[in-house]
Amino acid sequence: MARIVMQPSGKSVECAYGDTVLMSLEKAGFALPNNCRAGACGECKVKVLSGQFDQGMVLDMALSQEDRRQGFGLMCMAKPISDELVIEWGTEDAKPKLFPPRENALFVVVDKRVVAARVVELRLRPVGKPLRYWPGQYVTLGPGNDAIPARAFSIANAPRPDGELTLQIARSDDGPTSQWVHDTLTIGDNVKLSGPYGTFIGDPAVDTPILCLAAGTGLAPIMALAETALRRGFRKPVTLLFSARTEPDVYGHGMMAWWRTKHRNFDYKVTLTREQKDGFLQGRVNEVLPGLFPDLSKHTIFAAGSPEFVATCVNAVKALGAQDGMIYTEGFFAQQQPTVADASHLLNTAN
C-alpha cells in the first residue's frame, strides 16, 4: 500500500497494490482530469515532486521525453513503486485547479429538442479541441453581434471523451439571446462558446451525503455534478430535489429515473409550487425539506436556480443544521457575466 500526497494541500490517499494513481484518487473522491485512461491523450498529466512510479506504456505524443525530464507523468497509467508519491495537483484547500477559459471555441449544434414548457436542450459538439471544464461550470453562447449579446448557460453533462456539451436554455420574454436559441438556432448551425467559467464545483473530495436543490434550468449544473459523482462510484447517498411550478415545467425525469434504477445511493424528488399532482410533492423547497431531511448537519448542499430560490434554499438548509462551509450555490442572474477564478486556481495547460 502506497500513499499519494497532493501538494500544495498536503492531503493524501492510499493507493492499493496494482492500482494506478488515477484510480486511487478517484476512489477517494478526487476528480483528476482524464479521458482515454490508456496513456494516449495526456489529460491526466501532472508533475511528480518526489517518489518513484512505474509509468507503464504511454505514447510520446501524450508524454514527451522533455515532459519526463521535467518530472511529469500520466496518472492513468502510473503505479507507485515507492511508499510515498508526491504530486503537484489541486489548491491549498485541495480543490482542483480550474482550466483557463477559451474564447470563441467552435461547436456544431448536433441536436435540439424541447424538454419542458419553456426549455430547449442543445447538444453541441466541438469542431476542434474539446473544451476542458469541471462539472458545475458554465459557458457563454451568442450569435456574436451587438443586437444579441452572449449569455451564460451552465453545462448540463459530465465531461465526455468526444467533448460534447449539453445546454438547457429557458425562454426569457425579455431575453434576446434565449429567444434566438429557441426561434432561430437550428441543428447543423455553427456556434461559438467561451469558457468555462464559474466555481460552482464544490469539493471533489467530499465524503458526506449530498443534497442537490434545483429550480428551472438550475437543474443543468446539478445534473452535471450528480452524473460525475455517480459515474466515479461515489457511495454516499445523493438526493436531488427539483422544484418546478407545474408538471409541464418538469424535465430530466427520464435520466433521473435511470440514475435511481442504476445507482442504489441516488434518489430524486420533484415538488410543484403551483399545482397538486399525484406522484409529486407539493410546496416550495423550504416547506417540504423539513419532512424529508430533519437534520442536514452532516450533508453537503448544492443549490442552483434564481437568486431568490437559492437564498430560500440556503435559509432552509441552515435552519436544518447545514454548515456554512458545506453549502455551495449558483444563482442565475438575467444579465450574468462570466466569473473567472483567481489566477492561482487556474490549471496550466501548456504542459
TrEMBL record:
It comes from Brachymonas denitrificans DSM 15123. The lineage of its organism: Bacteria, Pseudomonadati, Pseudomonadota, Betaproteobacteria, Burkholderiales. This is CDP-4-dehydro-6-deoxyglucose reductase. InterPro entries: 2Fe-2S_ferredoxin-like_sf, 2Fe-2S_ferredoxin-type, Beta-grasp_dom_sf, Cbr1-like_FAD-bd_dom, FAD-bd_FR_type, FNR_nucleotide-bd, MRET, OxRdtase_FAD/NAD-bd. One of its GO terms (molecular function) is iron-sulfur cluster binding. Residues 102-203 form the FAD-binding FR-type domain. Keywords: Luminescence, Oxidoreductase. Residues 2-93 form the 2Fe-2S ferredoxin-type domain. Belongs to the Fre/LuxG FAD/NAD(P) flavoprotein oxidoreductase family. Pfam families: FAD_binding_6, Fer2, NAD_binding_1. PANTHER family: NAD(P)H-FLAVIN REDUCTASE (PTHR47354:SF7), NADH OXIDOREDUCTASE HCR (PTHR47354). GO terms for biological process: bioluminescence.
